[in-house]
Amino acid sequence: MRPSNRTPEQNREIKITRHYTDYAEGSVLIEVGNTKVLCNATVSESVPRFLKGKGKGWVTAEYSMLPRATHKRNQREAAKGQQGGRTLEIQRLIARSLRAAVDLNAFGENMITVDCDVIQADGGTRTASITGACIALADALNWMVVKGKLKKSPLKQMIAAVSVGIYKGTPVCDLDYAEDSNAQTDMNVVMTESGGLIEIQGTAEEGAFSHQELLAMLALANTGINNLVVEQKKALNVE
Amino acid sequence: MRPSNRTPEQNREIKITRHYTDYAEGSVLIEVGNTKVLCNATVSESVPRFLKGKGKGWVTAEYSMLPRATHKRNQREAAKGQQGGRTLEIQRLIARSLRAAVDLNAFGENMITVDCDVIQADGGTRTASITGACIALADALNWMVVKGKLKKSPLKQMIAAVSVGIYKGTPVCDLDYAEDSNAQTDMNVVMTESGGLIEIQGTAEEGAFSHQELLAMLALANTGINNLVVEQKKALNVE
Amino acid sequence: MRPSNRTPEQNREIKITRHYTDYAEGSVLIEVGNTKVLCNATVSESVPRFLKGKGKGWVTAEYSMLPRATHKRNQREAAKGQQGGRTLEIQRLIARSLRAAVDLNAFGENMITVDCDVIQADGGTRTASITGACIALADALNWMVVKGKLKKSPLKQMIAAVSVGIYKGTPVCDLDYAEDSNAQTDMNVVMTESGGLIEIQGTAEEGAFSHQELLAMLALANTGINNLVVEQKKALNVE
Amino acid sequence: MRPSNRTPEQNREIKITRHYTDYAEGSVLIEVGNTKVLCNATVSESVPRFLKGKGKGWVTAEYSMLPRATHKRNQREAAKGQQGGRTLEIQRLIARSLRAAVDLNAFGENMITVDCDVIQADGGTRTASITGACIALADALNWMVVKGKLKKSPLKQMIAAVSVGIYKGTPVCDLDYAEDSNAQTDMNVVMTESGGLIEIQGTAEEGAFSHQELLAMLALANTGINNLVVEQKKALNVE
Amino acid sequence: MRPSNRTPEQNREIKITRHYTDYAEGSVLIEVGNTKVLCNATVSESVPRFLKGKGKGWVTAEYSMLPRATHKRNQREAAKGQQGGRTLEIQRLIARSLRAAVDLNAFGENMITVDCDVIQADGGTRTASITGACIALADALNWMVVKGKLKKSPLKQMIAAVSVGIYKGTPVCDLDYAEDSNAQTDMNVVMTESGGLIEIQGTAEEGAFSHQELLAMLALANTGINNLVVEQKKALNVE
Amino acid sequence: MRPSNRTPEQNREIKITRHYTDYAEGSVLIEVGNTKVLCNATVSESVPRFLKGKGKGWVTAEYSMLPRATHKRNQREAAKGQQGGRTLEIQRLIARSLRAAVDLNAFGENMITVDCDVIQADGGTRTASITGACIALADALNWMVVKGKLKKSPLKQMIAAVSVGIYKGTPVCDLDYAEDSNAQTDMNVVMTESGGLIEIQGTAEEGAFSHQELLAMLALANTGINNLVVEQKKALNVE
């Protein structure tokens, strides 16, 4: 039995609020159970130096947790004077995932930066960030079309992400903190809406995991991400 | 005429949401017009080194703006590797102000840290932070009483803050960004609920300001803060 | 009775030495009682990036205390790897104050940086820095005129600063360390030579302060600053 | 056809030199084709603060590339003042993988730090680091047994790692730089000698990858890692 | 002919002001020609961690140049966020030199830190720092005797330092900036009052220097340092 | 008797491996007894900003020790967030020494950076770095000639370095760690192949050293460096 009484394949309730803040070109508050992440997409008409003059665009991301997003307060990274390894690893994952959603060659020399700030953390903050950030990204690209900066959105397809794992010997989907902190194996999966794999990061927390367990987790991820894409599209259709 | 059509002495609409997040001992979302600040108070049963063994408590604060709280994106301080002068100045002001609300000698060797994270910035973020943080602080102190960690809350009285200024020659209360960025003089005032002054920081942005103007701004601050204290108390009475 | 036996309105003895070092375009050692600050103004023919191409000049300042300026040695900020909040707050105040003395639009794309290094600290280092820096600034501007870089000095008027406070219940002017460390309220005031207010920063260290006390402190600041301006002008007339 | 003329399932030649330096408790130079990594294991009789008093040991790792390990010189991270996201991500992966090889509860309050310094980089530096570091770890644990600090080595089993990917449409094993920089998909796999999965990190560099491709890559990883474990054991049997 | 019209073996005029600031246990302003360094010695009753419990004392030093000590302003190291290589190298030299003057085994677990802050730089700041710092050190040790913290000063002997070099083919003593910036060879020498060598650091700036030139420079250093020791002793005899 | 049984004037065995890594334009592993340093020279077709447009080239160097090059592990400087004073001092010395070997005016606006990474440290790492780096530099300059980037190598002559010292009262050449850590005096000498002095840095570790001892050490350095230059030339003649 899962701590939340969900069935193994059951996602947490998801709530998506677009236009959450007024100034960002795309602004989404995504709530996955008690995990809440604010994803703000910013458009800038320039690209990083390594891309200058190549006629290509770029998408990047930053990730942070508010100090008291968690049960215990974490020291603020700005006060510590640097971003930790976990933060850098997560924001690199978010950025790579989002770039897989966009045809960068059809984007001009523009850049979108998506800031994912975790307001409350109950497990799965990186996957919630990816799922929410993709909506903010879509909104920002649409904003560019409306403003005449692009003829057509270079969004190829939606991407979404979920965590899966082995909890008390059973493969489960969309772990909350109670499960995540006790899981034997934890895997984050990013997929496209058409079922292609973008990223898969699995870690044995205790012992190793078998090929069979991997396949079971992948199947759960596939279903879970399908559900998320449905929610993403529903949200994008409301204006 | 003010850009917001308010009268010179009129505060912006204020909205206070207590228990905004689940984990902090005090958690308040304060909205002052379009300015939105999340104030999370964390209790810890220890004090900074310089107070160890003195039987006294401490209150401190940290302040940050989300990168896209503003019209243009600001670089994340954690990514820059340090907090800027403005941030440090503001969080020192918030902390000093909050300490004026508490009897630190009746607090034991405990500490409260209030994190003020600006979700959206439309002027007056430091004063909104102080006003909201005081409620989160009150909640955290009450939580300590409920949990038996303190017999009685050491809160002496509420404090609140407002910005006042000279806009197009007229003294006005509670400036939004449109006014603030064009004001000749800008002054932040922190007061107790009984009308005592805690902090006053006035700056001439253009030319100098006169003794007369200072008195006019102080009068507006007095009224504005009275209004805020009414809202604070109203919020604290709702459970 | 004040520890220094001064009357409440009495400034400390002030000594101004111009041309204290040989290389800076303006170099002033200001001694206010036992507080000694070296203020060196450097001219550069360029402006910060945000002003490039706007035809306007800039004035900025940096502040530091030598490690053993105080009774106990402070760790060197260069060794710590960053400037503290107090330092940043003070140098922002000095810079804002100095900019109020200059017509930046009549200054061309030039910049003056005033370094205020505290040799000895006996209270009031930030106000002594402002008072001394304004003289160094005037000298540097005159140097530019002499060198043919400017037709006319863009100095609008002198500014000076003093601290006032409530010590043992009595409002007093120009606090030394013995008073400052025990004051109930502490206020720094920056004014122009014609009596306009530039900055006012008052802080209740203990309890709150009343409107009456504020007015009494302002009156003392007014007199104290007038005295300082007299000394500034006397110094500038000697060659 | 692979640039190196290898068959898709063929590992690069591997060379393992134990006792490469004189002072480390375990010191291994691992050469995987032209990739060369020096793995030095250091024993310390203490654990990080979060483990103090829990009777458990710890294994950690650090990773770095010499500035000219690559075709173009990279700026030295010590000179930049911080380790980059890629470095932190890799050293976290190495450390997690190594911890999976050791029974930390049977290790006492001891710690082993394995430094992986890349002398030359021709693709697969993180997987070569893991494969080499596990041998250095085994040597350091044996050293502790010989020195009487442990009764028995807490090594549970060897672990090894390989990168697999999709290169020009074909799944291949153990990519060198020429392949890696052009691969459509890149996946790092860490396994135990008995075939359990420890870590799997797959990334689509271009488009997405299918479930079928994932299975093909996993099969290659399984064979490749088996080959590496044979080499590890051969090396450990030579004294 | 030297730019200063001095003979090759002639030192610059030296001026030593003891008790320059009020709070440091030893405080010396040393002026060597136009080079001015403030040397403040601070006593602390503890030693660095690596010496704890060994019954030995320690002497250390820090060095800094005020930003406008030189013809052009240097960026403040505290603002840059780190001390440069030149600064670290110099303060290591000063500290090593001062430790050679003291019997650390007869000093108890005490530490003296000497801060050398360059007010004005006209060449030879590191040697002036050493010469001045040794007087501040002697004063601080005497202060400890007077205060009853030590029975007897552990000062073994005075040390002093001078720079020598080859300027336009001629060996010269005590180079000022005009010479230093054009010297072919530059050498800093630290000696004891009895003629023992403590440090010698010679650098060819252009071409190499010969054994003969080295001997000529050493002879000049010997004379120059003797002159400095006479001045040190004269200053220490005045109360 | 020396710990290594060498005679006082005897160098340690030296082994030079050119082309140690594949990618650097010059790559030398130098082994001086048990001290091993990898020296990689990188050519870049640009110069630092202060030399832009002056038609001159530049040579610079960086130095680092792998964390476990020594008996005890040192914390990685990249992890600490800055290079220490010893590192900066050494790399400044290496760079200055190398620049003395090259006619920078005949080098065009090119730069060579030599990275000296210490694989194992048994004393004399900075002098081994200089001796090895000069060979890597020569190789890199020859590479530029072969590639047609220079008509002729601007190398003026080889330079080499050795440490000498007073160990148990006797002057000795090329100290290993056992001697170095117990030496009364330690001196590093850099010379050209024709016997000119480039750098001399002598430090009394205990007491002072006499003029006589200095001369004895210089004589040893002269012989020792001659031996090293023979080895450098032998190595450069092998292809």
Automatic annotation (TrEMBL), chains A, B, C, D, E, F:
The keyword Acetylation does not apply. Phosphate binds at R86, G124, T125, R126. Residues 10-140, 158-221 form the Exoribonuclease phosphorolytic domain. This is Ribonuclease PH. SUPFAM superfamilies: Ribonuclease PH domain 2-like, Ribosomal protein S5 domain 2-like. Its EC number is 2.7.7.56. Phosphorolytic 3'-5' exoribonuclease that plays an important role in tRNA 3'-end maturation. Removes nucleotide residues following the 3'-CCA terminus of tRNAs; can also add nucleotides to the ends of RNA molecules by using nucleoside diphosphates as substrates, but this may not be physiologically important. Probably plays a role in initiation of 16S rRNA degradation (leading to ribosome degradation) during starvation. It comes from the Bacteria. The gene is rph. The keyword Ribosomal protein does not apply. The lineage of its organism: Bacteria, Pseudomonadati, Pseudomonadota, Gammaproteobacteria, Alteromonadales. Homohexameric ring arranged as a trimer of dimers. Belongs to the RNase PH family. It catalyses: tRNA(n+1) + phosphate = tRNA(n) + a ribonucleoside 5'-diphosphate.
